Here is the input.
Amino acid sequence: MFDNILLGLNHVLSVWNIIAIFAGVMIGLVVGAMPGLSATMAIALLLPLTFAMPAETGISMMAALYLAAMYGGSIAAILLRTPGTPAAAATVMDGYPMAAAGRPGHALGVSLYASLIGGIISGIALLTIAPMLGRIVLEFGPVEVFAVAILGITIIASLSQESTVRGLFSGALGLLLATVGMDMVTGTPRFTFGQLELYQGIPFTVALIGLFSVPQAIRLIEQGNAIGEGIRKINDSLILTGALMRRLLPNVLRSSGIGVITGLIPGSGGDTACWFAYNEAKRFSKQKDKFGTGVEDGIAAPEAANNAVVGGSLIPTIALGIPGSSSTAVMMGGLMVHGVMPGPNLMTEHADITYTLIWAVVFANIALFLTGIWFTRLCVHVTRVPNLVLGPIIIVLCVIGSFAINNSMFDVYLMLAFGFLGYVFDRLKIPTPPLVLGLILGPLMDNTLGQSLLIGYGSWTVFLESPLALFFFALAILSLIQGTFVSRWLVGLVTRSGRARRI
Here is the structure.
């Protein structure tokens, strides 16, 4: 194994592979920073160009693009309140408020630092424990994935900052919208109203563009040029102090672990991991009430998680031939085109390509950090564009991005409908993140629930037969209790008990 590690390191340090990694990082940053363009789309477009390359060079370039696109999404999220990728949706919560308060450089620096640590940890996980962690995926069937989705739904309460009732309404609407499309178990169309475009469900990226981007564009147009000077003049540095790095490190390490574990579960991804990490950062924080106003922990957690997902999702792809996300599914296709079949024998029969890919993930993080400092500085200038110009530009990018997904005008109309919904939510002070979470986890819950009941022959006791599922259900119950008066009563009881002992 050690010889294979050295072989992969020797390959990745070749001139052409280093050039490919930096090229992939640059393309990924551009793609991630543009609203509506996803890492999956960019990898799919890049795939034909890699046919003429050696397998290790092409796959290294795609891995670098994947990693950089995950960070690039935070640039638009922080500067424009428009997540460039679905995985950057949680970054909007604290990233944009910090930028609006006059510290966009600081927010981007926190994002870059967290992405670097999260990406390196995912690379280390790939390099050291990929074979072992890959086998964990075999334990996750429909029952276990449904339990994970239930745990994710409990996050809605913590995302409802001002009104729990409004947050629950938003989350319930997201779950309802997630049922649109074909029932994967029965094959019955639901709520499609005869529209063939809705048979595959509501495209998540289209909905995300509308919910986050259009309301922000309308807000900019309404404000005219009256936006605060803090977001237009960038005087702060992207480089963080050593003290801040040390303070953020526990949060970043915890969030990176969440990202790696979430990436292991097929069907999950950065868009799920970022909300898990954000919720846990808020849970462990001593300043819970400040989340959503522009705190470093609220930026570092989702950014560390969504970059750590890259390595996590590659583990089942490499070890078992099971893609952990849509992006790794495209990358797996790239391996197969080059005559390399992902699976349990990949790390032995094609060790040179496998370990080159793993080292490419590690080195792509370094390239991302070096390139990100320069590239992010250039992106900062977009904040100096007048609001009356920037708003229409965002709308145009939204239309182009939503149309490019499926080359369909229906997606454009759907994006505008979600944009109107997001604008109404914004006016009524209804939080949008719970709706997004419902859209993410709804299809996962729907499909795995049907599959689980088929496995259990219609009996709900099937959920009590899996130790892993029971573990996640227990965590979900604890998460629910934390948001109720029972949690406050228990904390008060423990506090009074501690005081009594001291007396």
